[in-house]
Specification:
alpha/beta, eight-stranded parallel β-sheet, two-stranded antiparallel ribbon, globular, binds ligand 7PJ
């Protein structure tokens, strides 16, 4: 059964900034969008070699599209604290065949979760519609590649580097420092020729942030709307939800839904999640309330 797709859901006017809207591939972002997470790393699927990795990934992408995912985010680099460095060739070998295969079977736009200029270029050539960069285009050549490609790009805040970022995260005012960083990156992107209609921002929950920092950021998320760009939020199954509930990674769906609803109520436009069907339902409920508020 195909669940109700995004274009059948009621629309609301979103916090996209004055008179602005965004197009990601065939998807017009004029209602909250659900981005399904597809990790293409050997530890995320059964260990059956490269072809099986591609087929498993394709099946999961199809299932997420059927469940109502508006975007599929394909990543080949594990960014967990302590994760091993992945070479550009390894990342290309993981994500390019998967992106090609997904684009053949679904219209849902594909996002590539990468920081590497070469992977950005190859992914867009393979059919990806947007770039999701946890390093906000700070790696060598990434800014130039994104400017050349002219596709929507998500700039995420991270303090430090994945391997050590959770050792001693430090802020005087986490929300203000994240806002300042993102404003600076937006300016740098605009100067490099990336239009504001292509820029998405993300506070980067769990990336160089303590539990208290994550909670404070979520409580103050609305302040990031001042940036004037669509806001993406990734809290799905994250450690901070485990800290709040005492639950393991696979038991964090209710907490993830609560976080998704709070994010939407605070102006988030794209939710990056593992559990697509459940999040799509939560979006419908929240959106109905937001829309009613707007028209009253
Ligand atoms: C995020 C991401 C996030 C964006 C990851 C995980 C860790 N990209 N990539 N935002 N998180 N834009 O999913 O637990 O929060 S990987």
């Amino acid at each position: 059964m195909r669940l109700q797709s995004a274009d059948q859901r009621p629309k609301i006017s979103l916090a996209l900034g004055a008179n602005r809207s965004m197009q990601i591939g065939k998807l017009r972002i004029d209602a909250p969008a659900v981005m399904g997470i597809l990790n293409v790393t050997p530890d995320s699927f059964s260990d059956g070699g490269r072809f099986s990795l591609r087929d498993d990934a394709l099946r999961q992408a199809e299932a997420m599209a059927m469940a109502g995912a508006d975007i599929i985010d394909v990543g080949g680099e594990s960014t967990r604290p302590g994760a091993k460095h992945v070479s550009e060739q390894e990342e290309l070998d993981r994500v390019v065949p998967v992106i090609e295969a997904i684009c053949e079977v679904t219209d849902a736009p594909v996002s590539v979760d990468t920081s590497k200029a070469g992977v950005m270029r190859a992914a867009i050539r393979a059919g990806a519609a947007m770039i999701n960069d946890i390093r906000a285009l700070r790696d060598p050549g990434a800014l130039e590649a994104a400017a050349e490609l002219q596709r929507p790009v998500c700039l995420m805040h991270m303090q430090g580097q994945p391997r050590t970022m959770q050792d001693t995260p430090q802020y005087t005012n986490v929300t203000e420092e994240v806002r300042h960083f993102l404003a600076e990156r937006i300016g740098i992107c605009v100067d490099a020729g990336i239009g504001r209609d292509l820029i998405i921002t993300d506070p980067g929950f769990g990336f160089g942030k303590s539990h208290a920092h994550n909670v404070e950021l979520l409580a103050n998320l609305r302040q990031l709307q001042e940036l004037g760009q669509p806001l993406m939020v990734g809290l799905s199954r994250k450690a901070t939800l485990g800290t709040l509930t005492g639950r393991g990674t696979d038991e964090r769906l209710p907490a993830s839904i609560a976080a998704a609803v709070i994010a939407l109520m605070s102006g988030a436009v794209i939710l990056r999640v593992h559990d697509v069907a459940a999040t799509v339902d939560a979006v419908k409920v929240t959106q109905a309330v937001l829309e009613t508020r707007l028209t009253q």
